[in-house]
Design a protein that fits this description.
The structure holds two protein chains of two kinds. Chain A is α/β, with parallel strands linked by helices. Chain A is built from five helices and nine strands. In chain A, the strands form three sheets. In chain A, strands 6-9-8-7 form a four-stranded mixed sheet. Chain A has a three-stranded mixed sheet with strand order 3-4-5. In chain A, strands 1-2 form a two-stranded antiparallel ribbon. Chain A is elongated, with a radius of gyration of 17 Å. The chains are: A alpha/beta, B mainly alpha. At the A-B interface, helix 5 of A face helix 2 and helix 6 of B. The complex binds zinc ion.
């Protein structure tokens, strides 16, 4: 069987964000490209969500192991900033997964990420937009802490970037 | 000549981030409130990640491996500004340094995202988004505390006055300054400083804090070329301890 790019992406659906086990790396948007050379060598290009995210190394290894587990012996997984990550790269499926996990998905934005977007969040419990950012830094680099002024609960948001 | 200029630029950026990242991490477990403990720990993680990205660019230009660059040089080989190596002091002191540093860093990334040296432009394009959270955090605290109690205001003002000469040291000119500007690699320290003064002033204007008189300041220079305070070497020794104990430790 000759592998196609789509087959590799399907395999990579199995690899989840270790901090958000319902979110695949494909839906997270960190898989930026898959190339299959004529000799069958598979190259997977990845990019980090946050440059300092300690989970990225783990994700890269997980991608390598998943390729190997599916019988692909010749592969390279590259991590680079060639196609830098931003939160608009999260797929619709990824956003839904975040919400089910209890994390507010980041708002999508056009071109410029301004301060209003940084502070904007929809409460994942009651859907209110009457919320206040409590801290731009949460338990992991990709999460911020917000407070819902309607249901009076703290919640976490996957940060827009 | 051009490559030496690029390396010089990469070293000062990466070293600032690495050193300040480690200073930030010293707040872990000591922050005045849990949210601030988390904030400084997160910013430490970000900054060390940013330095890794720039050390990687240096490695691609033939310099040593990133972890060797980070952990096996002595103080005289470091290019960080003295500003970043000063001990944390009280929370107000760290907060002022955070405010002064990250506003400059944001401008640096914005300018570098248009750099004529593509590898730098790519990294800066990514990091200019991340640094917005640092600036948001710093500016929010300065705005809130800078117009709160008398004690908070006077503490912040004292820290601002004593840190300003060191902050100005961030803009020490490179020996390659003109090459970097002429080749479109970097906007240059003077351009960054002008924009920085405007932004700092804007935030301070919304508080009861007063901008120190800039022309009468004597910037603390020398850090970019290995002249450091007595505080850097002990910090480097401490940083290297982890790698000496476990050379395979992830950082
Ligand atoms: Zn709510």
């Amino acid at each position: 069987m000759v592998l196609q790019k789509e087959d590799i992406l399907t395999l990579l659906e199995e690899v989840k964000d270790p901090e958000i086990p319902v979110l695949s790396l494909v839906d997270l948007g960190v898989i930026t490209g898959v190339d299959i050379a004529e000799d069958g060598h598979v190259t997977v290009n990845m990019t980090p969500t946050f440059a300092g995210c300690p989970a990225m190394d783990y994700m890269k290894k997980d991608v390598e192991q998943t390729l190997a587990r599916h019988g692909i012996s010749s592969y390279t997984v590259r991590m680079s900033f060639d196609d830098p990550w931003n939160s608009n790269k999260l797929t619709e499926k990824g956003r839904a997964a975040l919400k089910n996990f209890g994390l507010a998905p980041p708002p999508t934005y056009d071109l410029i990420l301004d301060l209003d977007i940084l502070e904007y969040a929809t409460c994942p419990n009651c859907q209110s937009t009457n919320t206040t950012m409590r801290s731009p830094f949460g338990p992991t680099l990709c999460r911020a802490l917000h407070y819902c002024n309607d249901c009076h609960q703290m919640f976490e948001q996957f940060k827009p970037l | 000549m051009k490559e030496e200029a690029i390396k010089d630029l990469l070293y000062k950026i990466a070293d600032d981030q690495l050193i300040l990242g480690h200073r930030n991490s010293e707040w872990t477990g000591l922050g005045p409130i849990l949210e601030e403990d988390i904030a400084f720990s997160s910013m430490a993680q970000d900054k060390i990640g940013h330095s890794l990205a720039f050390y990687t660019l240096l490695h691609e230009l033939g310099e040593a491996e990133p972890d060797l660059l980070a952990f096996s040089r002595s103080a005289t080989q470091f290019h960080n500004s003295q500003f970043t190596e000063l001990p944390n002091g009280e929370f107000d002191y760290s907060l002022i340094r955070h405010f002064l540093y990250d506003n400059a860093e944001a401008i640096r990334f914005e300018k570098l995202s248009h750099s004529g040296y593509e590898p730098i432009a790519k990294v800066a394009t990514k990091l200019k988004g991340e640094i917005k959270y640092h600036v948001l955090h710093a500016n929010t605290w300065i705005r809130n505390l800078g117009s709160s109690t008398e004690e908070a205001i006077s503490r912040l003002q004292n820290s601002l006055n004593s840190l300003m000469p060191y902050a100005l040291g961030m803009f020490e000119l490179s020996v390659y300054e003109q090459v970097l500007i002429d080749t479109g690699i970097y906007a240059g320290e003077e351009a960054i400083k002008e924009e920085w003064l405007t932004r700092i002033q804007q935030v301070l204007a919304s508080t009861e804090l007063t901008m120190p008189d800039i022309p009468s300041q004597t910037p603390m220079l020398g850090g970019r070329y290995g002249t450091h305070t007595k505080h850097l070497q002990p910090l480097l020794n401490e940083m290297a301890e982890v790698i000496k104990i476990d050379p395979t430790a992830e950082w």
